[in-house]
Each structure stands twice: as C-alpha cells, then as structure tokens.
TrEMBL record:
This is Protein-serine/threonine kinase. GO terms for cellular component: mitochondrial matrix. One of its GO terms (biological process) is regulation of glucose metabolic process. One of its GO terms (molecular function) is pyruvate dehydrogenase (acetyl-transferring) kinase activity. It is found in: Mitochondrion matrix. It comes from Metarhizium anisopliae BRIP 53293. Gene3D superfamilies: Alpha-ketoacid/pyruvate dehydrogenase kinase, N-terminal domain, Histidine kinase-like ATPase, C-terminal domain. Keywords: ATP-binding, Kinase, Mitochondrion, Nucleotide-binding, Phosphoprotein, Transferase, Transit peptide.
C-alpha cells in the first residue's frame, strides 16, 4: 500500500485538513498518526495506577507491530544477495521473530480483547523486555553485514538505508523502554531495581525521560569513563574543564545524551593524546531561552494537534517544538581534522577494517582505534568504534528531537564541536 504524507500548516482549517486526508485515501493511502511524547506522558508520572499501566501497555502494543513491520519491509527492499548475508539475515529474522511474538497480542486487541488484566500486562512487559534485549546488538551486526557486502551495494544505498533504520530504531526502542520503565516503577509491582532499562526512583523521571536532566553530571561521568580507557590504552589521561552554566537542566533522554557525549569526548580525547597537546578539553554548557513566553514569563507549551493528517515517518515528536534546550561546545587543541577527511566525517564508513581485522566485540584487532573498547552499553549497543558509525549515529540521536551537531575544524590547531539538544518539553 502506498504511503502518502499529508502536512498541514498550523492555521489550516478543519475543511482543508479533511480534504487533504480524503485526497490521500482516494489515492489508496492509509491515514495514520504520529506518536508524540505528549501521548507517552498522558499516563501520568510514576508510580502509575493499574488502570494507567494497562493503558500504557495497550498504547505501546498499538505502535510496535507497525514499526517492526516497516523495518521488515525495508530489509526486504535490499538486494537479495545483501539480505542473504548471515549477519543481515540474522537481523531480518530477529525482526520477524519479534513481530510474530507481538501479533497475537495485537490481533486480540483489534478484536476487542486488549490487555485488561494485570497478569496480562506483566506477561506483555516480560515479552517486551525480551524483544528489547534481542535487538541490543542490531547496529554492530548490521555494520558487519554491510562490511561483508560492500561489493554488492553502493555506499549511497547503505547510507540511505542506515539513516532511516537507525532513526526508526531509536524511536522503536524508546517506545518499548518507556513502558518497561513505567512498569517497574509503578503500582502494584514497584520494583525499579529489577528493570532491564534504567528506571531511577527520582521524581524527575517519567519512564526513561528525565525532566530535569543535568548535562554537567552526564559529561563528568562520560569524561571519567573515556579518560580511564584513554589512560589504559595510551598511558595518558587528558584533562577536561567544564564551564558555562553547569547547573542547567532540561528534559531529555539520558541514554541518548550519554551516547552522544561519550562519542564526542572519545574523539576529543584521542586527538588530544595523539597530538601530545597539553591544553585541556573545554566543555561549555549554554542553555537556550524558551522561544515563547507567557506575559508572566513562564514558558508557553503549545499542545500539538494529534489529528493533522498522516505522518508516515517513524519519528517521535517532542512535547513541544518550542521547548528550550541546551547547546554544548566541546573544544580540543588536538590539531583539527585533515581537509581530506573533513568532508567524509558524516558518512558511514566501512573501510577502517580490513578483512583480516577483528570486529568490535570479537576480541580481534580493531584497525588501530585506541578507544575501540568503549562500549555504548547505556544505549543498548555494542562497541562499533572504527566503523565510522560514531558521528553519524550521534547526529541521529541529536536530531531526533530537533537538535543537531556542527563541527568546526581549524586544521593544525584544534576542533570545536557544537551539540545542540532540544528539550522534549514540560508537562504540568
């Protein structure tokens, strides 16, 4: 069935919206709706009541089979010789298995038998946790598969597929992990210590989202981790200095921030050590003011319209497009990026490893990448250092809620990386 994207302006009349939808239907399309975080927050702050927990489970169930089916279709659209690769075939079969497990729940719900008992919700959450664990190593396995198939598929095709797949994967995991975290932090089975996903008891958390995330704490934690690895490999520990406004807080997904900061600091620390620079890596935190304010000065949160046409994308929308965020600058004196390398830093690279090199996680040599031991366990991924995935994947996480990453290199001197993160919004 063809997919049509109907986009309407904020000032579109109801008649215009209705006409646009009808046009999509007339062309054989199907009207679906975007998933906004406002829907994910609609169940309230944990601990949730039994009714709210069941509502969250059914809401999650309504989304995941569709998202998994789209990933299966995307894999089927790859050349047959690529999909027949053992690693890519493994990922394809994982998605088929996951969909087959969820379909009985989905069919029951579509026939008027949703998840209505607490025991059913517990079983569904256990299944969900198993599926999340199954797809933990999707990225490195895909990377190895495409590496082995590089003679059969062009880099442009690989980049196009991975851009879509990685962004869809971010959203799918967020949907699943959000309910898992709500489950383990809610009544009547409050057990955050048993959750397979981060599930802090802090009141600022709603599922996996921290509504008062402090970037400076994440930076300190990630810097210590990367510095330890750096010292182990190189015998040197770069210094880091955090300035700006370290007390800044905003609403974001801590796991996403941890991955991005770890990757960016890894690059900065490695450049600093290999260039023998003595200057510290300087991280500046600059909060952004809200774009819209009420007369009293409080941020104005515009609730998104949940019925404005079809959204075929798997992207998850934030609570508020105008939510304030934060910009983080990471500055190093590591000599900058070579002009012949700079144009390619956002491309998925599959040439760092030779056929004789070990693959990340296999215990082999990692093509000389001194920080290949860094594993992004906090985001459910394995080490993929040396494959060129770090910056593109970091950008995918940053752009997911409307942020981005910009790199400014002064070759022979150093590099500035600007990480802009949009907050997901506030919920009263």
């Amino acid at each position: 069935m063809p997919g049509y994207i109907v986009t309407c302006k904020d000032d579109a009349t109801e008649d215009q919206i209705k006409a646009a939808k009808q046009h999509a239907l007339d062309q054989g399309g199907k009207i679906t709706h975007e998933y906004t975080l406002i829907k994910g927050f609609a169940h309230g702050r944990p601990p949730l009541s039994e009714k709210s927990l069941l509502s969250s489970a059914n809401f999650t169930l309504s989304l995941l089979p569709i998202r998994l089916a789209r990933r299966i279709q995307a894999l089927r659209n790859l050349p047959y010789i690529v999909v027949s690769n053992p690693n890519i075939s493994r990922i394809y079969n994982n998605y088929l298995h996951s969909l087959s497990i969820l379909l009985p729940y989905w069919h029951a719900a579509s026939q008027g038998h949703p998840i209505a008992e607490l025991q059913d919700e517990i079983e569904f959450t256990n299944v969900l946790a198993e599926l999340v664990a199954t797809h933990t190593d999707t990225i490195p396995i895909l990377a190895k598969g495409f590496l082995e198939c590089r003679r059969y598929i062009s880099p442009a095709e690989v980049t196009r597929f991975l851009d879509e797949h990685l962004r869809a994967r971010i959203g799918t995991r967020l949907v699943g992990e959000q309910h898992i975290a709500l489950h383990f932090s809610s009544q009547p089975h409050f057990a955050p210590e048993d959750s397979p996903t981060p599930c802090p008891e802090h009141p600022s958390y709603i599922g996996v989202i921290d509504t008062a995330l402090k970037p400076s704490l994440t930076i300190d934690s990630c810097a210590g981790f990367v510095a330890d690895i750096c010292e182990l490999r190189y015998g040197s520990r770069p210094q880091i200095y955090v300035d700006g406004e370290p007390d800044t807080t905003f609403a974001f997904v801590p796991m996403h921030l941890e991955y991005i900061v770890t990757e960016l600091l890894k690059n900065a620390f490695r450049a600093t050590v290999e260039s023998r620079a003595r200057e510290p890596v300087v991280v500046t935190i600059a909060p952004e003011p809200p774009l819209k304010e009420q007369p009293g000065g409080a941020p104005l949160i515009k609730q998104p319209n949940t019925d404005r046409g079809q959204f075929r994308s798997d992207a998850i929308k934030p609570l508020d497009d105008n939510a304030p965020g934060v910009t983080i600058r990471i500055r190093d004196r590591g000599g900058g990026i070579s002009p012949d390398v700079l144009p390619n830093i956002w491309s998925y690279s599959f040439t760092t490893f030779s056929d004789d090199d070990g693959f990340p996680g296999s215990g082999g040599n990692t093509g000389g990448d001194g920080l290949s031991a860094i594993a992004t366990a906090s985001t459910g991924g394995s080490s993929i250092a040396g494959l060129g995935y770090g910056l593109p994947l970091s950008r995918a996480y940053a752009e997911y809620f409307g942020g981005g990453i910009a790199v400014q290199s002064l070759y022979g001197w150093g590099t500035d990386v600007y990480l802009r993160l949009k907050g997901v919004g506030n919920l009263n």
